[in-house]
């Protein structure tokens, strides 16, 4: 099922990583002045941008406002230049709509929505370059953007993909690894309690192998959490320095 | 040139867990399907009709079966195969699709629930058990269908629908304790209010239709159509007069036969029914709005 070139004899992947190694993460918060919160993240070659507005009054139909909690409105958009072949529609197609729903499910559970009744929180995720794990990069960027906006959350939401090559579990798949035809597991984790906010698996995976792949994805999410936490603290220092003066 | 196959799913009744049901329906339909036989010789392609050569089945590698789990109370309670009521109040849903070899084909969690890894692993073990059962059921059904087709018996959709049976909204009979029935009945009668005043003269509307007693005031207000008031009348009779009504009805039917050819009589006689319509012909009595008094008869 998994192509042999995914893992070389010495145990290196096509891009020179070890099976459990995640790609290099570069992240920045507060990239836009106008939005309440914004963040930019690069995971290897995947580049994602997230912008958060809110909590604010319900736009559009006031009738849809929920009396006991805030409504989370998400949009997932992939730029026309993000993939190898030019995309015709950045958003509004079925795939983007489904990913937006998944995003909403993930964050509705993580944000403390009961603190903002009858209001709306908007999360817009834009993928600038897609090289595997676009949904997960979007989730990570959205987490940072929500932190930048100061919206209270239960915990960081860290997401990563994982796959299987022969018997070794691979973490953080790139596009050739995703397209190889093996199973692809996308996991969004709240690291403190080990809770899974989102779990998606495509392609066949034997039941016996599930714990291994879940473990690899979980470890990747925790590694990512360490990086994101560092970024947030750095940002906090920057902002404190700016305000302190 | 390739074959294109199209699967249409029609949902007839939604009582929860349509994902699982649709999945089973889909895979069984694909297993059951037969396509025309084809032979290829170099560049030439010959498609045989069903009469020339028996149609061949599709090559199905494996049968993925979905099993849904509903979570309640932040993952404390787990229900397999939720019904519609349970789906409405659940926190979230986890769908695991597996085949009989134990390979997970897909996992999807939705609804914003927080799961823990060992919950997911436990669910996958439960799924393995369920999928084995369901796959066996499917195999048996497919074999049965094949056998019946060969023997020439009845098969297909019409055969699978049970005849002369009401399969929906069936209520099981409940056992009733009749040990102390007499005592209970006497208690009820003792506590009950005395029956209200009864008018002993039944009014004959038409042969076979009589009215006993006065209805209660029509609480619907003024209605344009008289039909509405007619029905309000019939239902407005108090239950305490039921016993007396039975007696009246018995009397009524006997006197009816006597007065069958009588013309409309408006005078009331004690123990004599009041015939309001000509019973010779089928007459539809339409009450004019202005003729009906405020308090219905």
TrEMBL record, chain A:
Q: Which GO terms describe its cellular component?
A: cytoplasmic exosome (RNase complex); nuclear exosome (RNase complex); nucleolus; nucleoplasm
GO biological process annotation, one example? U4 snRNA 3'-end processing
Principal localization reads cytoplasm
Q: Where is the Exoribonuclease phosphorolytic domain?
A: 21-152, 155-217
InterPro entries according to UniProt:
ExoRNase_PH_dom1, ExoRNase_PH_dom2, ExoRNase_PH_dom2_sf, PNPase/RNase_PH_dom_sf, Ribosomal_Su5_D2-typ_SF, RNase_PH
Please give the Gene Ontology molecular function terms for this protein: RNA binding
> Known Gene3D superfamilies for this protein?
GHMP Kinase, N-terminal domain
Q: Which Pfam families match?
A: RNase_PH, RNase_PH_C
- Location relative to the cell: Cytoplasm; Nucleus, Nucleolus; Nucleus, Nucleoplasm
Keyword Iron present in the record's keywords: the answer is no
Keyword entries, A-Z? Acetylation, Cytoplasm, Exosome, Nucleus, RNA-binding, rRNA processing
Q: Which CDD domains match?
A: RNase_PH_RRP41
Of which family is this protein a member? Belongs to the RNase PH family.
- What subunit structure does UniProt give? Component of the RNA exosome core complex (Exo-9), composed of EXOSC1, EXOSC2, EXOSC3, EXOSC4, EXOSC5, EXOSC6, EXOSC7, EXOSC8 and EXOSC9; within the complex interacts with EXOSC2, EXOSC7 and EXOSC9. The catalytically inactive RNA exosome core complex (Exo-9) associates with the catalytic subunit EXOSC10/RRP6. Exo-9 may associate with DIS3 to form the nucleolar exosome complex, or DIS3L to form the cytoplasmic exosome complex.
Q: What is this protein called?
A: Exosome complex component RRP41
Q: Which gene encodes it?
A: Exosc4
From TrEMBL, chain B:
**Acidic residues biased stretches:** 222-238
BP-aspect Gene Ontology terms: exonucleolytic trimming to generate mature 3'-end of 5.8S rRNA from tricistronic rRNA transcript (SSU-rRNA, 5.8S rRNA, LSU-rRNA); nuclear mRNA surveillance; nuclear polyadenylation-dependent rRNA catabolic process; rRNA catabolic process; TRAMP-dependent tRNA surveillance pathway; U1 snRNA 3'-end processing; U4 snRNA 3'-end processing; U5 snRNA 3'-end processing
Please provide, alphabetically and separated by semicolons, the GO molecular function terms listed in this UniProt record.
mRNA 3'-UTR AU-rich region binding
Transmembrane ranges, per UniProt, are none
Where in or outside the cell it occurs: the entry states: Cytoplasm; Nucleus
Q: What segments bear the compositional bias annotation Basic and acidic residues?
A: 246-273
Q: Where's the Exoribonuclease phosphorolytic domain?
A: 2-36, 62-126
> Which keywords annotate this record?
Cytoplasm, rRNA processing
GO CC aspect terms: cytoplasmic exosome (RNase complex); nuclear exosome (RNase complex)
Q: Which InterPro entries match?
A: ExoRNase_PH_dom1, ExoRNase_PH_dom2, ExoRNase_PH_dom2_sf, Exosome_comp_Rrp42_subfam, PNPase/RNase_PH_dom_sf, Ribosomal_Su5_D2-typ_SF
- Positions the record marks as coiled coil are none
Q: Where is this region: Disordered?
A: 221-297
Q: Can the keyword Hydrolase be found in this entry's annotation?
A: no
Per the similarity annotation, which family is this?
Answer: Belongs to the RNase PH family.
Q: What is this protein called?
A: EXOS9 protein
- What species does this protein belong to? Caloenas nicobarica
């Amino acid at each position: 099922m998994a192509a042999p070139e995914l893992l070389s004899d010495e145990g290196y992947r096509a891009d020179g990583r070890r099976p459990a190694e995640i790609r290099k993460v570069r992240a920045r918060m507060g990239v836009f002045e106008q939005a309440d919160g914004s963040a930019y993240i690069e995971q290897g070659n995947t580049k994602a941008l997230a912008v958060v507005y809110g909590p604010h009054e319900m736009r559009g139909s006031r009738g849809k406002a929920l009396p006991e909690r805030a409504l989370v409105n998400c949009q997932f958009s992939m730029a026309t230049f993000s993939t190898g072949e030019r995309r015709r529609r950045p958003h509004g197609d079925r795939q983007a709509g489904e990913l937006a729903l998944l995003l909403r499910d993930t964050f509705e559970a993580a944000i403390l929505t009961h603190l903002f009744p009858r209001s709306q929180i908007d999360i817009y995720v834009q993928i600038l370059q897609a090289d595997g794990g676009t949904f997960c990069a979007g989730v990570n960027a959205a987490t940072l953007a929500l932190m930048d906006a100061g919206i209270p959350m239960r915990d960081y939401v860290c997401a990563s993909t994982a796959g299987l090559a022969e018997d070794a579990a691979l973490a953080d798949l790139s596009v050739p690894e995703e397209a190889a035809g093996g199973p692809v597991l996308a996991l969004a984790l709240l690291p403190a309690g080990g809770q899974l906010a989102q779990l998606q698996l495509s392609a066949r995976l034997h039941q016996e192998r599930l714990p291994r792949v879940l473990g690899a994805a979980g470890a990747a999410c925790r590694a990512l959490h360490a990086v994101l936490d560092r970024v947030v603290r750095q940002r906090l220092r920057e902002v404190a320095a700016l305000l302190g003066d | 040139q390739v074959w294109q196959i199209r699967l249409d799913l029609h949902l007839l009744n939604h009582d929860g867990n349509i994902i699982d049901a649709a999945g089973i329906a889909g895979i069984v339909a694909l297993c059951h399907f037969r396509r025309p036989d084809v032979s290829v010789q170099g560049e030439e392609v010959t498609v045989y009709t069903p009469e020339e050569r028996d149609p061949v089945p599709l090559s199905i590698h494996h049968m993925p079966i979905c099993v849904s789990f509903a979570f309640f109370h932040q993952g404390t309670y787990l229900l397999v195969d939720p019904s519609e009521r349970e789906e409405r109040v659940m926190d979230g849903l986890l769908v695991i699709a597996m085949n009989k070899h134990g390979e997970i084909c897909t996992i999807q969690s939705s609804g914003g629930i927080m799961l823990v890894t060992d919950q997911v692993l436990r669910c996958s073990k439960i799924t393995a058990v369920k999928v084995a059962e369901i796959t066996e059921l499917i195999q048996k059904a497919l074999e049965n269908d094949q056998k019946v087709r060969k023997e020439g018996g009845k098969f297909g959709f019409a055969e699978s629908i049970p005849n002369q049976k009401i399969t929906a909204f069936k209520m099981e009979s409940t056992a009733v304790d009749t040990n102390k029935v007499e005592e209970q009945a006497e208690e009820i009668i003792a506590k009950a209010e005395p029956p209200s005043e009864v008018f002993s003269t039944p009014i004959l509307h038409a042969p076979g239709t009589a009215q006993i007693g006065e209805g209660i005031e029509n609480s619907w207000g003024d209605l344009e159509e008289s039909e509405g008031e007619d029905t309000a009348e019939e239902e407005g009779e108090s239950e305490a007069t039921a016993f007396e009504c039975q007696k009246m009805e018995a009397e009524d039917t006997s006197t009816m036969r006597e007065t069958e050819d009588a013309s409309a009589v408006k005078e009331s006689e004690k123990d004599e029914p009041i015939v309001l319509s000509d019973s010779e012909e089928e007459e539809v009595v339409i009450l004019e709005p202005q003729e009906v008094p405020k308090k219905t008869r």
